[in-house]
């Protein structure tokens, strides 16, 4: 038991040591090296410092500058428990390595106890050269100071007490430059950002009170400010529009070590006493960039300073915000896409679960974005959020389309089934279609509506118009099919009826046969269309067509009827048929008496008389069989175009010079030559009949 405790204590100690060594290993990195290059792994360094904590905006940046060997690094190491190189640490009293050094701390040295909520502080130590050297080094000094102003909240200006009042101390010369450039950079300082200039007076003996030292420095600064050449619009701006000033005196580190440490600890209090008046990290000083954006911002700033470009800080911050929000958005989108297919696949068929899953995926992605990106400039963050939302919707639109397509197919199948299985006696096609259509549209719009309501669709206009066009096309096809079936039904009756009637009339023609044929033609059409007639020559085929469309269908039916009439007439009235019709008429009169009994011839004169009458009777219809005219002697003409407009090669020959089609004219049944031919045959045949009749008398006599 005892042994166990010993062991346990050891382990705890060991763990404590581990922790201690981890948090105190604050070897600084050279953020900007002697060659003025920005540290390429700065971001990694930050990540190491932070681990996987979410720091957000809760971090601070502080810089120091002042002449070489004025004890800056020494102060920082005591104040922040950092590990910057100092002269003392160097074996030979050579200069420390030039550049801007960066260290991280959570452990500010304070007099008060700070248990939790220690902020992450990043400390920049500017390691310059002695003021004695000129030229190139002065250039670095100036750039470093500008950089420090651009990226930090608090700038410590480190100076010896005895330097105060001696303008030659290059701190003040440098501050003048910094003021000047700062003013040209920020102009009127509309966004009210400020930097705290914290003057730390070293080796403050105490003979001259701090207040008079600070008055003296303040006067000097105000004088510098008044002498600045100010850009247009900033003539009236004051030092205090851009900077807050604080003064602190520290005891001599080597002569009054304890006092020095005590003074530093008191200074440290001001970095941790959040919410008090003496707290140094005012929100107004913060650049409002999350830590991961800060590195990029700092690098951009350095790049601009180094290359002497205009250092437009607000623009820099926007650029960083753009880059970062973009990065965060695409990360969130990537994650969304990687999960998408798998989580959507099983829900594709049912609206409710599908939409709630889509909403969940979307919300997850957006809140991932919000979590990190909302810390950046608000308008940049919102703008990118909008476009991320758009990208998500684009991705989702594929699924929505697929869903709607399947839905539409299902609704369409139902509609067709309903129409085809309706009780035809009580429900018309048109009514059934109208009811079905309303149902399809409302079901469909309801689905689209719920996608829209949940903001899964950016716009429903496009999708609705796409689907309604397709739906309209399908309805048209359905109507066409219904119409086709109806027309076929009409055709099946109408065509043979017309044929029969015409042939019947023509086979026993009267002189007014064409009047009869045309009367019959119209009445046959009419009786076949009786169920569609709404008024004289106006029809509704009951598939939901417009008046014009109905009229066009009726016209086509007339064309069909006319074509039937045309072919029937011309096929039937060939030379032989006409000859035999004429002969029948002749024989009816010649051979039979009015009672219909065969005549018995007694004398040849009798035969000649009858022959003349019979022949005249027969030929009474010859003209109407060779030319279709009414009893008023008007040539019959179709009232619709019955010849197909066919422009193919072979038909060209039928066109006259005006290009009018003349393949055949309805009324013209026989040509003059054909008429001769008919008459010849007719005469020959009736002559034979006459001869036979005469011979029959002779035969009777010889008996
Ligand atoms: P830096 O170049 O400004 O960073 O100065 P260092 O921190 O490297 O210190 C330069 C020298 O000043 C070292 O030898 C220190 O021992 C010494 N030093 C540090 N602090 C003080 C101080 O408060 N008073 C005086 N007189 N010397 C100091
Ligand atoms: Mg130093």
TrEMBL record:
Residues 1-703 are cytoplasmic. It comes from the Eukaryota. The keyword Signal applies. It is found in: Endoplasmic reticulum membrane. Residues 56-285 form the GB1/RHD3-type G domain. It is a multi-pass membrane protein. GTP binds at residues 66-73. Its EC number is 3.6.5.-. Belongs to the TRAFAC class dynamin-like GTPase superfamily. GB1/RHD3 GTPase family. RHD3 subfamily. Interacts with RTN1 and YOP1; GTP binding is not required for these interactions. Cooperates with the reticulon proteins RTN1 and RTN2 and the tubule-shaping DP1 family protein YOP1 to generate and maintain the structure of the tubular endoplasmic reticulum network. Has GTPase activity, which is required for its function in ER organization. This is Protein SEY1. It comes from Saccharomyces eubayanus (Yeast). The gene is U6500H02100. The chain holds residues 40 to 742 of 837 of the full protein.
